[in-house]
Design goal:
The chain has about 270 residues and is an alpha+beta fold. The protein has 13 helices and four strands. Helix content is about 50%, strand content about 10%. Bound molecules: flavin mononucleotide.
Length: about 270
């Protein structure tokens, strides 16, 4: 074990924060550590919007399926997949005109591959921030619901055609920094890691994969049907069939269609 592994092994999601703001020195380190994340071609294909204005935080809390902890979090970062800045640079810096004049490249609008690469960049940066935060004693929580209500999020944050929310993380010093809190169980490595080819998992494999979590949830009386249901029942009825998942799918389709649709005028 070393310090880095200790940081990784002790990280857990923190949702309740002390009121005090993030120390400016810690914030600086957090930003610098985030920038060290690997990046496709080192293009830094992402941007991060820090929501500082309380009204922006309040709206994000509502847009993200009404999670009040977002409004209260000392630090709120929305990680954007950002091809827009390169589109602007290619055009404004003259590369597009040069390619056309010299007959070496015609302009193509960003595709879904560009989008995917930017999303990877943004999420890798986010996870780098999460681990750096943990090492500084700062707790964090991803907010998956940032991919809901695309139109509202886009208007609130002034997003352009080729900037989409990849993920969101809220940070703060833990309100209850107990060390002996139980870490959530995970699948065994043998259920996740595969060799050479995809292994299609079926019932018995899946019971092995999710058994530790099912046992944990049963212990906490969290399973449906009076705690007699399975973990599959839990995710199927509470998450997969929920209205928030329906909205997530609608919203994701909307931002993908906007990105992949007719090109908007720059500016
Ligand atoms: C992509 C993603 C989205 C998440 N969205 C939320 C969220 O909207 N609200 C929340 O309270 N936790 C959210 N979480 C935190 C997970 O619930 C948490 O990571 C998981 O239960 C495992 O717990 P642990 O991080 O403490 O190990 C999210 C985590 C990830 C990776």
């Amino acid at each position: 074990m070393n310090d880095t592994l200790t940081t990784i092994f002790n990280r857990r999601t923190i949702r309740a924060y002390d009121d005090r703001p993030i120390d400016p020195k810690d914030l600086e380190l957090l930003k610098e550590a985030t920038l060290r994340a690997p990046s496709a071609g080192n293009m830094m294909y992402y941007s991060v919007i820090e929501a500082k204005d309380q009204t922006v935080k309040d709206k994000l809390a509502v847009f993200c399926d009404n999670q009040p902890m977002i409004a209260k979090a000392p630090l709120v970062w929305v990680f954007l997949a950002d091809t827009q800045k390169w589109v602007n640079y290619f055009h404004e810096g003259g590369s597009v005109a040069r390619g056309i004049a010299e007959g070496t490249a015609t302009w193509r609008k960003p595709g879904l591959g560009d989008m995917h690469l930017c999303i990877q960049d943004a999420i890798i940066a986010a996870q780098t921030a999460v681990i750096a935060a943990q090492s500084l004693g700062i707790g964090s929580c991803y907010i998956g619901d940032i991919i809901e209500r695309y139109e509202d999020v886009r208007d609130l944050l002034g997003l352009k055609q080729y900037t989409i929310p990849a993920c969101m993380v809220i940070f703060g010093y833990p309100k209850n920094p107990g060390n002996n809190v139980e870490l959530k169980k995970r699948s065994p490595a043998s259920s996740i890691f595969m060799t050479d080819r995809y292994r299609d998992l079926h019932l018995e494999d899946l019971k092995t994969a999710y058994g530790p979590m099912e046992e944990e949830m049963r212990r906490h009386n969290r399973l449906p049907f009076g705690n007699t249901g399975s973990i599959a029942d839990y995710y199927y009825f509470r998450k997969y069939s929920s209205s928030f998942m329906e909205e997530m799918n609608r919203s994701t389709k909307a931002f993908m269609q906007h990105w992949d649709g007719p090109e908007e005028t720059l500016g």
